[in-house]
Design brief:
The protein is about 0% helix and about 40% strand. By secondary structure, it is mainly beta. It starts with 16 loop residues before the first strand and ends with a strand. Pfam families: GSDH.
Length: about 450
């Protein structure tokens, strides 16, 4: 079974949501009937996205969101900027398009961002996927800064199984997940890039330490093989542990540990666990034929939870979170024991979720292709009152957890507010959802606790 196409979808079930919008200083968000553990909820960070595929945090706190049709959007200080960072000409048929984002470990110095996208057929150029590097200039790409690092193999008429995820490892090298273009034989063939995880330097060259030191240029860049559609990758901070989320066909979704180079994960001979000693079995797998939140059809996101400053309970630190595209849940793995232990963080999420990632603020984020929305999952029991970013505060001396801002303070409240009114519509009381944010002119933020 193939992962559902990444084009437009019609939702298969009705989501009942309440949206409250307050004019002038207050903006609210969707409040939907999802299922979370006690004190967890989700809030909409950005809406109006078109077929989003992946999101990534820049080290300075902005969120970059790839749209399949080639636009890289920027969320800054809680707002989706109207001008894209860059607009690329792509082939967006099927699962092709703008699919991957990674920020250079030395971003503060070089301002480099890396993108994975599908180059359309034009003249003598055949459709293929490309990895390029761009230089950031403010909130857009510096004109003329694209540096092509790697042109992948020409693609067949099949538009699925492109992979596209990119991450930097703890070693500073760029790791790239590439699908097998719906041709399973590619996965075991070491002289093309398809069905592999690649490892390259930031200029596209072959780094020291790759498992194959001779042979074709493709072979020398291979880190792992025997993969079907490694749609997302994840690196654990500090430890450098490296997981590959591989979308299965008929029976199993896989989470593979590719921390060591040269491993063969078995596709197409094996899906799930194999007794063949030549293959490396997944750390964890989940079936297509099960019940509840054990069941799924396509793993489209995964992230270790090891933030610099955790906003979730301590028991969540070190867990691996992953999501399913079809059944719209987020599960988590406790990796502390001899075998992973699965539990559920969220279910009943808005349709067709992708791109799960841990933000630099200590919260998890994901995209819904069905609603065109970037969501943030917050833990509301924290007693937090702190400035998150510097900015143009109206009067820093008067701000505290207990003070409610007024319109004179030039504030915008995002995420959720509750308004009590009398029968004539006069506002009697305004209270803020715990964990909400107040955004100030100039980009300052105050996170509200209890």
């Amino acid at each position: 079974m193939n992962r559902p196409q990444q084009g437009s979808h019609s939702l298969t079930r009705t989501a009942f949501c309440l949206q409250v919008v307050l004019v002038y200083t207050f903006m609210a968000t969707h409040v939907c009937a999802q299922s979370f553990p006690a004190n967890f909820t989700q809030v909409a960070v950005a809406t109006g996205l078109s077929a989003p595929t992946i999101a990534a945090f820049s080290p300075d706190g902005r969120i970059f969101v790839a749209q399949q049709s080639g636009q890289l959007r920027v969320v800054k200080n809680g707002s989706l900027l109207p001008t894209p960072f860059v607009e690329l000409t792509v082939d967006a048929s099927g699962e092709r398009g703008l699919l991957g984002i990674a920020f250079d470990p030395d971003f503060a110095t070089n301002q480099h961002v890396y993108l994975y996208y599908t180059v359309p057929t034009s003249g003598t150029v055949t459709v293929h996927n490309r990895i390029s590097r761009f230089t950031v200039s403010g909130d857009v790409a510096l004109s003329g800064s694209e540096l092509i690092l790697l042109e992948l193999d020409a693609l067949s008429g099949a538009t699925n199984h492109n992979g596209g995820s990119m991450v930097f490892g703890a070693d500073g090298k760029l790791y790239i997940g590439v699908g097998e273009n719906a041709n399973p034989a590619n996965s075991q063939y070491l002289d093309n890039y398809l069905g592999k995880v690649l490892r390259i330097n930031t200029d596209g060259s072959v780094p020291a330490g790759n498992p194959y030191t001779s042979g074709s240029e493709a072979r020398k860049r291979i880190w792992a093989y025997g993969l079907r559609n490694p749609y997302t990758l994840a690196v654990q901070p500090v430890t450098g542990r490296f997981f590959v989320n591989d979308v299965g066909q008929e029976t199993w979704e896989e989470i593979n540990d590719a921390s060591t180079g040269g491993l063969n994960f078995g596709w197409p001979t094996a899906e799930g666990t194999s007794s063949n000693p030549a293959f490396t079995n997944p750390v964890f797998k989940y079936p297509h034929a099960a019940t509840g939140n054990e069941n799924g059809c396509a793993i489209t996101g995964g992230s270790f939870y090891n933030p610099t400053e955790a906003t979730y309970p301590a028991s969540y630190v070190g867990r691996y979170f992953y999501q399913d595209f079809c059944n719209n849940w987020i599960n988590m793995l406790d990796l502390s024991g001899p075998s992973p232990v699965r539990s559920t963080l969220a279910s009943g999420l808005p349709g067709f979720s992708v791109g799960l990632t841990a933000g630099i603020d200590g919260n998890l984020y994901y995209l819904s292709r069905g609603t065109g929305t970037l969501y943030e999952i917050i833990y509301t029991a924290n007693n937090i009152c702190q400035s998150l970013k510097d900015g143009n505060w109206h009067d820093t001396s008067v701000w505290s957890c207990g003070r409610i801002p007024t319109s004179a303070d030039k504030t915008t409240v995002r995420h959720a507010v509750t308004v009590a009114t009398n029968q004539t519509g006069q506002t009697l009381r305004v209270s803020y959802q715990v964990g909400g944010r107040v955004l100030f002119a100039g980009g300052a933020q105050l996170r509200l606790g209890e």
